[in-house]
Amino acid sequence: MTxxxxxxxxxxTARHDPPHxxxxxxxxxxKHGVVVEPEGRHPLADVRSQGRDDAPVEQVYAVRFAARxxxxxxxxxxxxxxxxxxxxxxxxxxS
Amino acid sequence: xxxINDVGGMQGFGALDTSDDTEPFHADxxxxxxxxxxxxxxxxxxxxxxxxxxxETMEPSAYLAASYYERWFHAIRTLxxxxxxxxxxxxxx
Lengths: 95, 93
What we know:
heterodimer; A: mainly beta; SH3 type barrels; five-stranded antiparallel beta sheet; B: mainly alpha; Cyclin A, domain 1; 5 helices; 54% helix; EC 4.2.1.84 (chain B); CN_hydtase_beta-like_N (chain B); Cobalt-containing nitrile hydratase subunit beta (chain B); CN_hydtase_beta_C (chain B); Elect_transpt_acc-like_dom_sf (chain B)
């Protein structure tokens, strides 16, 4: 499996609100950011947290968000480590 | 389903305590809970993501009233019961 996103790629996070553990925090759902770099592959925590042993092993990316995008204010940035499943190409059209 | 642990960016919790607290544990039972969880993960009774899930599904008012390692102990009990290692009734004896 090749990495879907390259450093510098613009991405939009998923809007999901799953009934199980996830490592995409609520404040960062449906937000636009920029990929900084890949961080390595890990089993998807959302699946593994359900006690399943079939979790896909995905690239995890450092993704940079403007505070203004996350909270509507602030001049700083926040970098989150996010699994590939949490990220979409904002050009794909679906919202 | 937003959970009680997911409070990043929320207002009203006051300033973060960033004082330099170098003590890893503040009571012997905390060290035991830490060691117990490490052993159970290492032995494959459950994985770390299941553990985090069990912490997050605490009843919200209990979660907010509990200390860090009290939440850990709650999750260990929940998972030992769920995995059939011990029954909650046995733990309460």
